[in-house]
Amino acid sequence: MKTSPSTDRTTPDKALVEQFRARLVSVERLSRLSVETYLAEIRRLLGYAGAAGAKGADSGFLSRYLDERMLRDGIDGRSAAKAIAALRSFYRFLVDAGLRKDNPAALLESPRRELRLPEALSAESVDALFALIDTSTPAGLRDMALFELVYSSGLRVSEAVSLDVDDCFFNEAVVRVTGKGRKERLVPFGSSAEEALRRYLTEGRPGFLKPGRKSSALFLSRLGKRLGRKGIWKNYAALAARNGTSSKIHALRHSFATELLSGGADLRSVQELLGHADISTTQIYTHVAVSSLEEAHKKHLPCLGVR
Fold first, then answer.
1. Which residue in 100, 180, 226, 248 is the catalytic one?
2. Rounded to an integer, what distance in angstroms lies between the CA atom of residue 38 and that of residue 17?
3. Average pLDDT, stretch 25-36?
4. pTM of the full predicted structure?
5. Alpha helices in 106-203, H assignment, sequence order
6. Is 253 a catalytic residue?
7. What's the CATH fold of domain 13-107?
8. Is 123-300 CATH 3.90.1570.10?
9. What are the residue boundaries of the structural domains of the chain, listed by start?
10. From 69, 156, 205, 254, the catalytic residue
């Protein structure tokens, strides 16, 4: 039997959004970031039309709403596609709740996304970057372990943040990762990451722990709490600036995938390691790998050219 938040057409906007949130978390099992992105879009829609107007909207109304979003907010095709995904999910929720009979967002056409190749660093560039980390301090030991693990295992920042000490299995050289949709996977890490992790756990992490307080988190902040995404982004950005680049920490994950494919790994294996639900997401790295090979070809065999 379906559960319905209410069949009352005057359900307040705030209650409707909270009911939608519950569905995204418990039924669609989206990541926290995706949930917040969807909710922000629906709040904009409700502000544009009001709850009654949103419930009674047709595909033409939604098209006008998206056109205005693109004109007013300047969103690109990628952002528009995310907005459409949020609208489809919201109206699917309204249909299941008995608040309307059809899903007008199903008729919306997603814009073609431009192929934007992810940034990837060469192994030499990564080595040069990591060489700048001062491992004489607890913070330096932590950052070295964190960045080595992200690079060695291809982790998302959100996945690195959620790691606990017990998620590291040194005998097997794997880390237990909780990815999108709360799906767990085991990902191997290399010897450099292992060395950095062991040193951080023995020499660095104890310096972050406050007297009388315990924490299961693997990576800690100076306050002894779980290190957050913003802190990681800030620390990596500072390191990249010292190296004279503007790369983002996501480049380490991209480099991991690109190196695997360039080395002959099959696409399905890379998909599993990265935790991609759809292999089409992984396929973009084949373009990066080919691009890297072409650059190497031009550099070392310029007389042959590249067609």
1. 180
2. 10
3. 89
4. 0.61
5. 123-130, 138-153, 157-161, 191-199
6. yes
7. DNA polymerase; domain 1 (1.10.150)
8. no
9. 13-107, 123-300
10. 156
